[in-house]
Structure formats: structure tokens, C-alpha cells
């Protein structure tokens, strides 16, 4: 992707506002192309869905491990302290959607039937859903063993 490709795609680019959304590398490439094309960068709007907190994808050396029971799959998995529930599920190849990965879209909604979690956001969840035990796997970490479903 470069400025020439961007102009072929949108010949009236200088007259437009540009709205970008993740992934970060895509947004960076478009920004560079818009800059090369001498577009008005004040008309360029970015919406990153990159987590503002950094959960490790691999556990820390002295991590505490929690057991996550997944009755619908008849499986148990482990999640390390500091690791999001979404990361733990994905690491085991379980079929969960994690679109925004920042607690905005709600695609990774899970229900905690037993156990305690730490969460940074509940974004699109209603108060009723939160009271019923629903969480967002991307922005929640276990703080005890868990039983969950989705």
C-alpha cells in the first residue's frame, strides 16, 4: 500500500475525511500514504482497538496459575495471573471470538458460573448481564479457579 494506490482507490482523497480502525499496522500504512499524498492529516481519524493495558501473552516467571473449567467442552485449561481469559482460551485453540480485544465490542462475552475475576471494563454489557455473571474475556483475568461458558 502506498500513496499511489490510495489515490487510485479514492481519487478525491484530499476532499475526504479518512476514518481508520485497527489493525495498527494497517492504520500506520494508511497514515504514511496519506502523508506522502500531502493530505490534510487533521482529517485523518484513528480508532485503535489495541488494549490500553498490556496483558502478557506468555506467563510471567512467578505467575500464579488458575484452573478454568469449561463444561461445554468437557475440558479444563490453565490461565496465568496477568493473562486475560481470552488469551488463555485462544492458547488452547478454543472457539471464541475476540474482535476488538479491548472490551468495546462484546464479542468475547462469557458467563462466570463460579470463581472470581479482575476486569478492566465491561463495555457493552448491560447491568443485568453483569449481575448474571457475564464478563468480557478480553478484559478479564482470573483471580481464582473458574467455571465459565459462552
UniProtKB/TrEMBL annotation:
Keywords: 2Fe-2S, Electron transport, Iron, Iron-sulfur, Metal-binding, Transport. Residues 66-150 form the 2Fe-2S ferredoxin-type domain. CDD domains: fer2. SUPFAM superfamilies: 2Fe-2S ferredoxin-like (SSF54292), Ferredoxin reductase-like, C-terminal NADP-linked domain (SSF52343). Gene3D superfamilies: 3.10.20.30, Nucleotide-binding domain of ferredoxin-NADP reductase (FNR) module (3.40.50.80). Its cofactor is [2Fe-2S] cluster. Belongs to the 2Fe2S plant-type ferredoxin family. This is 2Fe-2S iron-sulfur cluster-binding protein. It comes from Celerinatantimonas yamalensis.
Amino acid at each position: 500500500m502506498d500513496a499511489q494506490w490510495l489515490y487510485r482507490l479514492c481519487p478525491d482523497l484530499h476532499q475526504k475525511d479518512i476514518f481508520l480502525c485497527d489493525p495498527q499496522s494497517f492504520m500506520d500504512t494508511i497514515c504514511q500514504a496519506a502523508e506522502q499524498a500531502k493530505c490534510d492529516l487533521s482529517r485523518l481519524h484513528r480508532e485503535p482497538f489495541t488494549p490500553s493495558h498490556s496483558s502478557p501473552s506468555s506467563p510471567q516467571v512467578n505467575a500464579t496459575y488458575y484452573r478454568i473449567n469449561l463444561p461445554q467442552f468437557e475440558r479444563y485449561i490453565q490461565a496465568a495471573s496477568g493473562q486475560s481469559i481470552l488469551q488463555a482460551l485462544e492458547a488452547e485453540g478454543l472457539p471464541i471470538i475476540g474482535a476488538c480485544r479491548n472490551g468495546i465490542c462484546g464479542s468475547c462475552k462469557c458467563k462466570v458460573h463460579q470463581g472470581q475475576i479482575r476486569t478492566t471494563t465491561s463495555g457493552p454489557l448491560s447491568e443485568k448481564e453483569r449481575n448474571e455473571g457475564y464478563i468480557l474475556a478480553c478484559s478479564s483475568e482470573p483471580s481464582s479457579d473458574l467455571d465459565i461458558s459462552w
